[in-house]
Design a protein that fits this description.
alpha+beta; Uridine Diphospho-n-acetylenolpyruvylglucosamine Reductase, domain 3; Alpha-Beta Plaits; seven-stranded antiparallel β-sheet; 20 helices
Length: 559
C-alpha cells in the first residue's frame, strides 16, 4: 500500500511535514493587503482538537456484520477506530476542511474495509447487498465535490468505506505496445515510478497527483496539468475492470472497436455509483528527455485568450498552457513580494513593463513542451512565442516556467495557510467554447464578487485558463473570502453553500458545464439534470438499476 495516511495532514492538504511558510515580513505584507482588499480585519481560525478527539457517531456495524466483513476481506482489513473512520468521512473540499478543523463531523463510515483483491471486493459487495449497507469507494480521498460523503438510503443500516489503496499492484507493462496495466488503487507517484523504470510515462498530472489514485482519476474523468500534450484520462484508458453488485464489467484491450457504444465511457465519470474500478490498462508514452517551460505577459486577458486559441488551433504542439487573468496574476506577484529584499530584478522588470502597457489587467501566460528531442521541443516553444508576440505578449523567459514546474502541486498548501488566518479559499471550474470564454469569464467573476459581498462582506475573485482544446477551454475560478464569525461548522458551511449555489447558477446560465475535471459528487448533483436532460438522466439511472439494483454503491452522488 503506497499511500500512507499516517504521513498526511488529517485536517488539511498533503504531508504533515510540508506547508507554505512565509518570512514574517512577507506574511505581514501579504495579510495586510488581503485584509485591505477583503475590507475586514483577519482573525485566526485554529484547529480545535486532535484527530483522536473527534466525536463521531457510534458505529452501526454489529458483531454479526463485523464477522461477515472480516470473512470477506480478512480480519486485518476491517477497521473501526476513530482515526480511520474520520479519515474516510470527508474529502478535501473547503467544507470538508472546515468540518475537520472545527471538530464537527456529523457523519462517518461505520467501518472501513481495505480489500486486497478483486475477489475480496466482490465478496464485500455481496455482504453489503445482503445486509442492506451502502458502500462508498475511497481512493486517495482528494475529492473536492463531496464525492466520498458517507451517505446512505433511509432503509440502509450502515455505510462501509471501501478503501482501494491495497489494490496497488503493477499488473504488466508492455513497452512495445505502449500499454501498462495497474490495479486501480495505485497512487500517482507509484504509478509513474513503475513506468519510469521502463523509460515510460502516463503524463497524467492533476494537482492531486501525489495523493490521488488511478481509480479516482477514472471515476471522476480527471484531467492533468499537461493534458494538452498527453490528453485527459478518457484519452488514456484502453480497457478496465469494474466490480459491481451484479458482477464484473470488463472491456477489451484493443485500440478501437466499432462494436456498439463504448462501455469505457459508462465507467469513466461514474464516481463509484455503479461499482468499484479495480484495474485499468492505459496508453503510455516514452518518457520525455527534455522540457522547456516559459512565461509571457499579455496586456490583457483578452489578448492572452486570443493567443492561446491560435496556439491550440494552429497545432503548435504545446504540452501545457495556462493563462492567469489580471487578478490572479497580481495575487501571484503579491505572494512573492519581500520587503526584506534589497534588490528584486523581477519587481523592477514588472515596474518597467507597467509603463509600457502591461499594467492593470496584465495577464501571465505559462507554456511549455517536452519530448525526446531538444530540437523539436525548441521548435514548438519558439512557434508559441511567435504567436504570443503577435498578440502583444512580452516574453519573460524560463524563470516563470521553472517556478511553475517546481511548485505545481503545492498550491493547496496555500489554502491551508490562509484558512489558519481566517480566509476561506474555494474553486469553481467549468468549460466553455472559445466564442464564450471572454463573456463567461466576466459573468462568472461578477457572480463570484457579488456572492462574496453578500455572504461574506467581501471577496477577491480571479481565474485562469487551465486546459484547452480545438473548440474551447476550461476556466478555473478561485474565490477568497473571510470566514463567518463566530466560527461554527453550521455557520461556515452554510456560508460556503450559499456562495456555491450563486456561482454555480451563474456558470450554468453562462452555458458552461457544472464540472470540467472535479466531478459531480454531492456539490454539483442538483445541476446535473439541466446539463444531461431528463432522458439522459433516465439512461444513467437505467445503468445503475442494472448494475446496482439495491442502491448499494455510493448513494447520493451523481444520481
Amino acid at each position: 500500500m503506497s499511500l500512507r495516511r499516517e504521513e498526511l495532514c488529517w485536517y488539511g492538504w498533503g504531508r504533515r511535514d510540508e506547508a507554505v511558510a512565509f518570512p514574517p515580513e512577507r506574511a505581514e505584507l501579504l495579510l495586510g493587503e488581503l485584509a485591505r482588499r477583503l475590507g475586514t480585519a483577519l482573525e485566526p481560525a485554529p484547529v480545535r482538537c486532535a484527530l483522536e478527539e473527534l466525536k463521531l457517531p457510534a458505529s452501526r456495524v454489529d458483531d454479526t456484520l463485523l464477522d461477515r466483513l472480516r470473512e470477506a476481506c480478512g480480519r486485518e482489513a476491517v477497521h473501526q477506530d476513530v482515526a480511520t473512520r474520520a479519515w474516510h468521512a470527508v474529502g478535501r473540499g473547503l467544507p470538508d476542511l472546515l468540518r475537520l478543523r472545527l471538530g464537527e463531523l456529523e457523519r462517518a463510515p461505520d467501518a472501513v474495509v481495505f480489500p486486497g483483491s478483486e475477489q475480496a471486493v466482490a465478496a464485500l459487495l455481496r455482504v453489503a447487498d445482503e445486509a442492506d449497507c451502502a458502500v462508498v469507494p475511497f481512493g486517495g480521498g482528494t475529492s473536492v465535490i463531496g464525492g466520498v460523503e458517507p451517505l446512505h438510503a433511509e432503509r440502509q443500516r450502515a455505510v462501509i468505506a471501501l478503501d482501494t489503496t491495497r489494490l496497488d499492484a503493477v499488473v504488466k507493462i508492455d513497452g512495445e505496445g505502449g500499454l501498462a496495466t495497474f490495479q486501480a488503487g495505485i497512487d500517482g507517484p507509484a504509478l509513474e515510478a513503475a513506468l519510469a523504470a521502463h523509460g515510460l510515462t502516463l503524463g497524467h498530472f492533476p494537482q492531486s497527483f501525489e495523493y490521488s489514485t488511478l481509480g479516482g482519476w477514472i471515476a471522476t474523468r480527471s484531467s492533468g496539468q499537461q493534458s494538452n500534450g498527453y490528453g485527459s484520462i478518457e484519452d488514456l484508458v484502453v480497457a478496465l475492470r469494474m466490480v459491481t453488485p451484479k458482477g464484473v464489467v470488463r472491456t477489451l484491450e484493443v485500440p478501437r472497436a466499432a462494436s456498439g457504444p463504448d462501455l469505457n465511457e459508462l465507467v469513466l465519470g461514474s464516481e463509484g455509483s455503479l461499482g468499484v474500478i479495480v484495474e485499468a490498462t492505459l496508453r503510455v508514452s516514452r518518457a520525455p528527455v527534455c522540457s522547456d517551460d516559459r512565461g509571457m505577459l499579455f496586456p490583457s486577458f483578452r489578448q492572452g485568450v486570443a493567443a492561446a486559441r491560435e496556439m491550440v488551433q494552429s497545432g503548435v504542439g504545446l504540452g501545457m498552457l495556462r493563462l492567469a487573468d489580471g487578478a490572479e496574476t497580481e495575487l501571484g506577484l503579491m505572494q512573492r513580494r519581500d520587503p526584506a529584499r534589497g534588490f528584486d530584478p523581477a519587481e523592477l522588470l514588472f515596474s518597467w513593463l507597467e509603463g509600457r502597457g502591461y499594467g492593470q489587467g496584465r495577464s501571465l501566460f505559462l507554456y511549455g513542451a517536452e519530448g525526446e528531442h531538444a530540437r523539436d521541443v525548441k521548435t514548438r516553444v519558439g512557434r508559441a512565442r511567435r504567436v504570443g508576440r503577435r498578440h502583444g505578449g512580452f516574453a519573460l523567459g524560463r524563470s516563470p516556467g521553472r517556478h511553475w514546474r517546481r511548485e505545481r502541486f503545492a498550491t493547496p498548501y496555500l489554502r491551508d495557510w490562509l484558512l489558519d488566518r481566517g480566509v476561506a479559499v474555494d474553486t469553481f471550474e467549468s468549460a466553455f467554447s472559445w466564442s464564450r470564454i471572454e463573456e463567461a469569464h466576466a459573468t462568472v467573476l461578477a457572480a463570484l464578487e457579488a456572492a462574496g459581498r453578500e455572504h461574506a462582506g467581501g471577496a477577491i475573485a480571479m481565474a485562469h485558463l487551465s486546459h484547452s482544446y480545438l473548440d474551447g477551454a476550461c476556466l478555473y475560478f478561485t474565490l477568497l473570502y473571510p470566514l463567518a464569525r463566530p466560527l461554527a461548522s453550521e455557520r461556515v458551511v452554510s456560508q460556503w453553500r450559499a456562495i456555491k449555489r450563486d456561482v454555480t447558477d451563474a456558470i450554468v446560465k453562462a452555458g458552461g458545464t457544472v464540472s470540467h475535471h472535479h466531478g459531480v459528487g454531492v456539490d454539483h448533483r442538483e445541476w446535473l439534470p439541466e446539463e444531461k436532460g431528463a432522458l439522459g438522466m433516465d439512461l444513467l439511472r437505467a445503468a445503475k438499476s442494472t448494475l446496482d439494483p439495491s442502491g448499494v454503491m455510493n448513494p447520493g452522488k451523481l444520481l
